[in-house]
Amino acid sequence: MSAVDSREDTDKLLSYYTKQQVMFLDRKLGMTFYVIQLSIVAYIVGYMFIYKKGYLEIEQAKGAVVTHVYGDAMATSSGKSAVRYFSTEELTYPGLENGNVFIATRQTVHKQKRGVCEDFEIPCTANYDCTPGRKGTCSPNGYCIEPSWCDEEENEIYEIDTGGMQIWTRSTLQFVKLAPARVFFN
Q1: Cα gap 63→175, rounded to integer Å
Q2: H/E element holding 146?
Q3: Burial, 158: exposed, middle or buried (Cβ in 10 Å; 0-12, 13-18, 19+)?
Q4: Exposure string (b/e) for 32-63, b if CB count within 10 Å is 16 or more?
């Protein structure tokens, strides 16, 4: 025997299991056991499934989600040296869907005026690729020169650190037909 085996509990080492069957010779106790089992099965099958048709009741839940955003941010422009404050309303506008939140992490500010200049949104290879009726011409850079919004100065690009903002969310759920008095929420 090794040293590990000698430390084993002798009660565990010499024990064995036997199945034992205990019989109660009491007719009333046996009948009570079967009556309780039969009444449980009758309640589930007879009352819940057949009479109340509980297995057939389904309902689409109705619910809502509300979100609130707290906090603000400061950012420095990567274009020209400018520091700008961004409020919660600026960073979460526009609200696209009820209960959803989109927080901007980058904003580009364009300073533009109306004039005739290269429109970087309309690429071209020839003059006929430019907008008809505006008398546009194709530049050597491959963009149309026509009346449009022209940049006055370099764009300001802000990388916004939104780590300090907090989002509070609350949702509710209700089964109007199945349980009209209960509203589940978190």
Answers
A1: 9
A2: strand 143-151
A3: buried
A4: eeeeeeeeeeeeeeeeeeeeeeeeeeeeeeee
Element (H, E) at 75: strand 73-76
38-75 pLDDT, tens per residue? 999 999 999 988 888 777 777 888 888 888 888 888 88
- Give the span between the Cα atoms of 117 and 153, in whole angstroms: 13
What's the DSSP call for residue 154? P
Query: 102: closest CA among 63, 141, 160?
Result: 160
DSSP letter at 177 equals T
pLDDT tens digits, one per residue of 91-125: 888 777 777 888 888 888 888 899 888 888 889 99
Alpha-helical runs (H) found in 57-156: 88-92
| Token pair belonging to 122 | 């309309």
Residue closest to 89 by CA, chosen among 12, 169, 165: 165
Beta partners for residue 109, in sequence order: 156
The first and second tokens of residue 141, run together, are 């850079």
Has this prediction a pTM greater than 0.85? no
What is the DSSP-derived secondary structure letter of residue 127?
G
Structure tokens at 171: 């949702």
